[in-house]
Every structure is written in structure tokens, then in C-alpha cells.
Sequence to fold (318 residues):
Amino acid sequence: MGGPYASKVATLGGKPTKGLDIPIDAVFLTLFLCAGAAHMRLYIMNKKRGHKFIPSAVTFGFCMSRVVANIMRITWACYPSNVSVGIAASVFVAAGILLLFILNLIYAQRMLRAAFPKVGWSPIGSYLFKGMIAVVLLTLVMLITVLIQGSYTLDTSILQIDHKIQLYGVAYFAVIAFLPLPITILVLIFSYGKQVEPFGSGSWAAKGAIVLTAGTLLCLGASFRAATNYLPTHLITESPPYDSKACFYIFDFGIDITVVLFFLVTRVDQRFYVPDGSSKVRHFRGTGVDQKDGVSENASIERKEETIVPLPETHAEV
Fold:
């Protein structure tokens, strides 16, 4: 058995270099570290007051995965001939973004359940959502497997199979990134003028705007990665413009940090908070917002400023 073998095919971002990539990766590393600290501090502060919002901890985990990805790219730039380090860097770059896809899909699901509980809380809807998440995790395992396997073989037939699996994976991830958009748009259209069950704080329209904005950014990045994979492959010496380092940092780390900071500034920990055990009782009542028989008009879901935990100082540093 040989390998690992360096890839001869052009990939998004290519191999990092000391002069260009290390300064950029260092900046993104600092940004993700500060953003992760801010989300974790919010999680701890909220938990102390009985307001446990797990997505804040998940966002912290995503930021730490991006910190590791940037560290691995810096290491790879220092040791460009070390193929194993390159594989590890590629794995961390590809894996982390899925957490943001899942979080935004969860926010869209909460809006669906608030507006149309018979659909959102139905067994079919719940199992469908869980099934999609399970397929995401299985697909991630498949992509990591073929990424590593492709570095330890020169068999063209195996490499072709690995490439087809990669095409399926990026396409499925693009679909997951896109799903919150139609779900939220349909919910906003068909819930207009109707009563919805209140949850969290802030207006109904603001919740929709947050999911749509984050979904558009995430879908843009996922679609770009999928499109470039479906285009004809090129040798490293013939790398096309869409595989440039500029495209890599814009559509990967650039979009990622934008969404993370967007979630922080818009206070998703307050707007999309639901009580523990909501999935068991199948409703969001008892969230601390004004209610009338468990429901409220869209326009009546107003934000309560006294329930907002102040942003940590680390946010200002970001």
C-alpha cells in the first residue's frame, strides 16, 4: 500500500502558501476564536438564568472547528510536502459548515411549528426532519472516507467512484442549505394575518428575516462549492479562476464568519428560544412572552428588552 499521494487535481483554494495564506488564516482564526467565545459566554449567562439555548453552544463548537481548520492550513503552509496535514485541513474545512446548515434548518422548523403546529409537530414532519439530519451525518462520513481513500490509491476506477460520491455529497448539502428558504417563505405567506404560537422574543417578521438572510448566505456558499465540483476537473497547473484563493476565502470562511456574527448580533438566543421539553408537549407555551390562550397575532409578538442578556465584551472586540 502506498500513499498518501498529493492530489494532482485543482481544488478550491489550492495548497496554502506562507506569504499569502498564513496572514489571512491568522485573521480568520482570531475572528472565529472571538466569535466562539462570545457565543459560549451567551450560552453560559443564559443557562445561569434558566434560559438554556443549545444552538449557542453548537455555534461555539462550529467556531472551534473553524479555528482548527485555520490552524491546519497554517501548518500545511509551513509543511507543504506533508500530505497528511493537507488531508486533515481539507476534512476540517469540509465538515464544520454542516452545523450552520442544521441550525438554520432548526430555526425554520420552529417557525413552521409555531404557525402550523399540525404540520410541524406531526410525526411525519418530525421523522422527516430527523431523517434529513441523519442523512447529513452519514453523508459527511462518506465524504471524509472517500477524501482519505482518494489520497491512498492511484486506481482510476476507485477515484471515479469517490468523485461521484463527492458530487452527491456537495449536492445534498446544497439542498440542506436551501431548505430553510422555501420553508420560511411559505410559512410567512400562509401565516399572514393568522394567529401563531409565540416563542422567544422579537417580531414574527424579524424571525423570518433572520432565517432568510442566513439561509441565502449559506445557500450561496454551498451552491458555489457544488457548482465547482460539477464542472470539469483541471490539473493543478491549470487551476481555473473559480478555484482561486479569493473564491475559497469568500465562499468558505468569509460566509461562515458573516453568518456566525449575524446570529450573534441579531440575538438568535432570544428570538428562537423555546422551553426545554417542548418536543414532548408539542407546543412552545410558557416562553415568557405575552400570550392569549396560547397564541398571539403576528404583530403582537414584541420583543421584551428586559429579558435580553447584554452582549459580552468579546463581541465588541470582534
